[in-house]
Amino acid sequence: MASMVQSFENVCSKVLCIDDLNVIYNKVKAIAARWKQFANSLYIRPATISIIEADCGSSSESCLHKVLEHWLKKDYNYESFGSPCWRRVCVAVKEGGGDPALAQDIAREHPLSASTGGESTADSIYALPVKDVRLLNEIYNFQWDFSDILNETRDAFKPKLLSKVIDYLKTRVHALLGPNKNNEAAMQGIKEELCDIESIEDLFMVLQQKYVSWFNYELIVKLVIVFLPNNRSLKKKWSGYEEKLKDYFLNSDGLLIDANALEFGIRDVPPGTKVMIAKVDRDDYTPADLFFFRRAIPKELNIPDVNLYFSFVRIGSLQLLHNIPDYLYSALFPLSTEIQQQLASIGITELTCGDYQYDLRKFSASQELQQSVQSSLDIGM
Questions:
Q1: Where are the domains of the chain?
Q2: Does pTM top 0.85 for this prediction?
Q3: Helix (H, G, I), strand (E, B), or coil: what is residue 111?
Q4: What is the Cα–Cα distance from 358 to 139, expressed in whole angstroms?
Q5: Cβ count within 10 A of residue 276
Q6: Which helix (H) or strand (E) holds 102?
Q7: Looking at the record's lineage, which domain of life comes first (predicted)?
Q8: Each residue's pLDDT tens digit, 30-63
Q9: Distance between CA atoms of 13 and 88, rounded to whole angstroms?
Q10: Options 2.40.160, 1.20.1060, 2.60.40, 1.10.533; CATH of 18-114
């Protein structure tokens, strides 16, 4: 269920991260004087805004920079208001920043079909979300197991190894970035980040926050093999974790290898196409994460020629909440049948705004029936 038709719907929805901080700041710093209103439009918590004001004092530029830092780190209720993206930057610049012209400039620079660093938009790697509390618990347990072994690995590395490990990583930046992100600027940024690390603890904290996960741990295993070759206990634990993950892929519903694309709302392949669906715990994974997830799939299950998509595992119904100004409410509602059909085509099933309520499931069923009929006609021709 959604509460409005989102403004700037033609702006890129690729999920942004802390690496995008300086680019975004340079683009919006003209509205620094209204940093507090801008922060409110990004749904930064009032308590966080107060802390920023106390820490940065009267420097509006510093306050704006800190607001973006909190936002890109998802230090707000992003599950209700959505992950950081250029679309939300435009809305906040227009409403909170009070600069519609700048918002339109940003929108033109980041159209929906655009990508950053050679990546496609985040939505293109996701199928429809699914509800599966049991599976979410399994993934949660994997995250605990992964964190425990990672912490034990960190403790096994002596401080004297830090410089050697960093030198090793500098020559293997591709292992941190994944494919499609190995441009010179990105690689140089990683090398500079590594140079600023002063302890083993800091190194592992950066790796865990940005580069490794419960399914992307191959680099950590290589570090153990290279720098702790005699630590049999640690090798055994990582091997055990790999076997446990393999069993998860083989015997749970976490990976579907013969799914119907239409049933999962995938529209970029012909009707009836079989795809692989990986059920995951977050809705902001990137194409690089998709690559690393595929590397973790056992060879006997991985089908190279079949597309793999993520499906976000949710606890309950997925609800998107947005605020709209009165003039936009008057202009949009009541919704025409055409707009209702368009909303249904992107997976929205219910919509409530003010006095208006819409059940869009009837349009979804009608569209699927039409596609099914068209598919049958195409096969018969």
A1: 18-114, 124-132+249-314, 136-238, 326-380
A2: no
A3: strand
A4: 35
A5: 19
A6: helix 100-109
A7: Eukaryota
A8: 999 999 999 998 989 888 999 999 999 889 999 9
A9: 8
A10: 1.10.533
